[in-house]
């Protein structure tokens, strides 16, 4: 996870997979320490997005519930997140290859790389400052966000984990294709 303004790498956690629970646990830990961002920009892969209507997966929904705006890049357009993609290339070249013996050794590499990247490597885009000199944690704290407020003329529906909600006593799915004519 990186701060787009300062280019500060907030966290880089070695995990056995990209499943929701582990990723959420890592996000919570980072956000308790660094605060909540206003916006999170993500690509369209798991665990961030799906190909379904709204592209939301549980992690993105959790972020929205925390008052974070989720910004998706256009599918197949990594250039929209070019700096972050470049950071991934640097990380892979400098801290992943060749692969270490185990996850603990990999995490040590990530931690060393992150410290060097944030505090020992000046960035042209930052007028040759280090990301650690520019970065400031968010003052927005995890667990202190307001409930989402909707205009009075909105009808608010509770959506189940399976994507269903009730309209007029009938179950409807957010994944169902619209039958209305947009024209």
Describe this structure in words.
α3 crosses α4. It contains 5 helices and 4 strands; from the N terminus they run αβαβαααββ. The chain is of the alpha+beta class and 183 residues long. The protein has helices spanning 20-34, 58-65, 82-96, 103-119, 131-134; strands spanning 39-42, 69-72, 164-167, 170-173. The protein has a domain at 20-134: Nucleotidyltransferase, domain 5 (2-Layer Sandwich), CATH 3.30.420.10. The strands form 2 sheets. Strands 1-2 form a two-stranded parallel ribbon. A two-stranded antiparallel ribbon has the order 3-4. The longest helix has 17 residues, at 103-119.
Q: CATH homologous superfamily of the domain at 20-134?
A: Ribonuclease H-like superfamily/Ribonuclease H
- CATH fold description of the domain at 20-134: Nucleotidyltransferase, domain 5
The CATH class of the domain at 20-134, by name, is Alpha Beta
Number of strands: 4
Query: Which strands sit side by side, in order, in the main sheet?
Result: 1-2
Order of helices and strands: HEHEHHHEE
Shape: globular
Please identify the structural class as seen in this structure: alpha+beta
For the largest beta-sheet, the strand count, sense and barrel status come to: 2 strands, parallel
Which short descriptors sum up this protein?
Nucleotidyltransferase, domain 5; two-stranded antiparallel ribbon; globular; nucleic acid binding; 9% strand; two-stranded parallel ribbon; 183 residues; disordered C terminus
List the SSEs and their pairings.
Elements: H1 20-34, E1 39-42, H2 58-65, E2 69-72, H3 82-96, H4 103-119, H5 131-134, E3 164-167, E4 170-173
Parallel strand pairs: 1-2
Antiparallel strand pairs: 3-4
């Amino acid at each position: 996870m990186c701060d787009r303004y300062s280019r500060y790498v907030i966290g880089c956690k070695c995990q056995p997979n990209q499943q929701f629970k582990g990723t959420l646990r890592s996000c919570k830990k980072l956000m308790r320490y660094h605060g909540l961002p206003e916006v999170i920009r993500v690509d369209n892969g798991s665990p961030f997005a799906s190909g379904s209507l709204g592209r939301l997966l549980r992690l993105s929904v959790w972020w929205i519930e925390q008052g974070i705006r989720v910004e998706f890049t256009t599918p197949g357009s990594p250039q929209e997140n070019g700096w972050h993609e470049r950071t991934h290339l640097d990380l892979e070249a400098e801290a992943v290859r060749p692969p270490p013996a185990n996850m603990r050794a990999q995490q040590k590499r990530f931690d060393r790389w992150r410290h060097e990247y944030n505090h020992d490597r000046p960035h042209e885009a930052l007028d040759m400052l280090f990301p650690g000199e520019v970065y400031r944690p968010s003052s927005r704290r995890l667990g202190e966000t307001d409930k989402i407020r909707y205009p009075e003329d909105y009808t608010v529906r509770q959506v189940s984990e399976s994507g269903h909600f009730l309209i007029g006593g009938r179950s409807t799915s957010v994944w169902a294709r619209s039958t209305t004519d947009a024209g």
